[in-house]
Design goal:
8 strands; two-stranded antiparallel ribbon; globular; 18% strand; 3 domains; single chain
Length: 283
């Protein structure tokens, strides 16, 4: 509406309902509920039709260039979805989330005490690592965090001759330097214990100024730092470390094109790279 209000008005499409009924089709289908234990009906846009007319209107204000049209010399990306099974503790906790959700829907609890946002957030933490809920819980050897540690070390060892580098994205459990459990410190300690030198593992959070970021990125490009941890906001667009980058690991949501864009770049030493999602979260 911002760019083409007059055109929309001429075609009687200035209101969303008229535009949606002309170009879109909604379908009601079952999808996983926020608490992750049952399904509910949800209506969403399923597909678009009258595409020639829609694209003709859109191209009046947009210049579309896809990757296939540009034919840039980017590396081939191999995508991997690593599936991990929940522990018994996680299964029990998911059941408790479902009970909390039932109480919220039945309005048996005040919103300031518990609500769907809190339940969903607890579910995301639980999906990452059960110690996010309670640091005293055991470290599950089959967790997605430990699966990621296995992959990072394997790739580090396999590409030692070329000093290939890796990025690990994790948004929920960033380092706090207060002694509390976090995934960053946990993974770094495990990787060091396996044999990766401590100076080759860095957190993007350690670089607090532009000068420090420039220095850190330079070390990643040279292979001096071979494993860099960071969150989506801090290590997304603007992180130009693609020279030796061989793999990206995504531990939690969101999975954004800007993350993959750190590795799907021109002027790279490596021609084949990997992007790994360590477990698809329902939360």
């Amino acid at each position: 509406r911002y760019l083409q209000y007059d055109t929309l008005a001429q075609n009687g499409l200035q209101h969303f309902d008229s535009w949606a009924s002309t170009f879109g089709e909604t379908v009601t289908a079952l999808e996983l509920a926020p608490e992750g234990t049952n399904y509910r009906a949800k209506t969403r846009f399923a597909k678009f039709y009258n595409l020639p007319e829609l694209m003709h209107m859109f191209r009046e204000v947009a210049d579309i260039q896809t990757a296939d049209m540009l034919k840039l010399p980017v590396p081939k990306v191999n995508y991997h979805n690593i599936k991990t099974k929940p522990s018994e503790i996680q299964t029990e906790m998911v059941a408790s989330l479902a009970k909390r959700a039932e109480k919220v829907r039945a309005r048996l609890v005040e919103p300031n005490i518990d609500n769907m946002l809190k339940i969903t957030n607890d579910g995301r933490k639980l999906a990452l690592d059960q110690r996010m809920i309670d640091p005293m819980l055991p470290d599950d050897p089959d967790s997605k965090v430990n699966a990621c540690v296995d992959n990072v070390y394997r790739i580090w060892e396999e590409h030692a001759d070329t000093k290939a580098t890796q990025l690990v994205f994790c948004d929920l459990s960033t380092p706090k330097n207060d002694g509390t459990f976090n995934v960053y410190d946990d993974m770094r300690e495990k990787l060091i214990a396996r044999g990766i030198p401590a100076e080759q593992i860095r957190f993007i959070h350690e670089a607090t100024t532009d000068a420090q970021k420039k220095e850190l990125f330079g070390k990643v490009r040279s292979g001096e730092v071979r494993v860099l941890f960071g969150s989506t906001p801090k290590m997304g667009a603007g992180t130009n470390v693609q020279d030796r980058l061989i793999a990206i690991h995504n531990l939690d949501c969101p999975w954004r094109p800007s993350d993959v864009g750190r590795i799907l770049r021109t002027f790279k030493i490596k021609k084949n790279v990997e992007v790994t999602d360590n477990g698809k979260d329902n939360f």
